[in-house]
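Quick start: what a row looks like.
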Amino acid sequence: NDLHKNCVLNMNCDIIGGKGATDLSRSIIMPEVRGVAADFIKAYTGCEFRGGRCGRNGDQSYYINGVSSAFSSFSKQPRPDNPENRLQQTRSGAYDFGWWWHTTDDLTDKVEPEYFLRDARIYISIAMYFACNPIIPLDFRETARELCDLVAYWAQRARGRYDLSEPQRLADCLMERLERLYGDERKETETFNHLLLALGRILVPLNYTTGNIYENDSGVPLPPMPALKLIDDLVRTPVGSSAAYDIVTALNHKRNFVLDSFERAIELTDRYMDGLAEGV
């Protein structure tokens, strides 16, 4: 409950400063944090940070709390172009972290002090930036863009078997609202920060959970916007079958979660902007 009410950012600091770890482009990150991370990584190293989608790894235990996340395993070994070289590079199955990862050879001699300092600077700088910035630097426009793309992704996978037109409409509406929100002059800082946290409590679970914010999903890989993952089951069933009917019924419940999430986010944003227009 404390995390749900107050936590601003989850940063997981794992595998930093390894020998040969020159690739800083691929750590996992949520879209609303990517811009800040990219700016600091670029400033300290000149590297272009792309980031990857957060999964159920790196202690990602806070999806249900609606907490935005940055990083897991951070600096990595450059990826060999030849897949056979990748196998030769590791004994533990994770060439990203060096052949020694999770072996008895994973000792302090595998740490490069210069890289360790580089990575620590980046982590500390981002943490301090979030802690000290008057406005919480979360950009939910990026999240809304991703959610628009994900609804379109599931609509395409449904192959006409399931209607997602209303979630698509609401996703577009949210995107339009957030573009205006970040473009408008902000009023009292605390009110805006409360809005940002409230948006995260809605949009993070929508993006990363199956819909129950009171119990973690299983620690297995899940597709993006996993509340709609039953669509993949639906398209494998015969049209009009009892199995298809059962899946559609379950999907209707999940679509309600998606619709409600978009509607609540839009309502919060509208309420804030109405207050801004009224000078409250």
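That is the whole record. The CA atoms of residues 214 and 225 lie 17 Å apart. The two ends are 29 Å apart (CA to CA).
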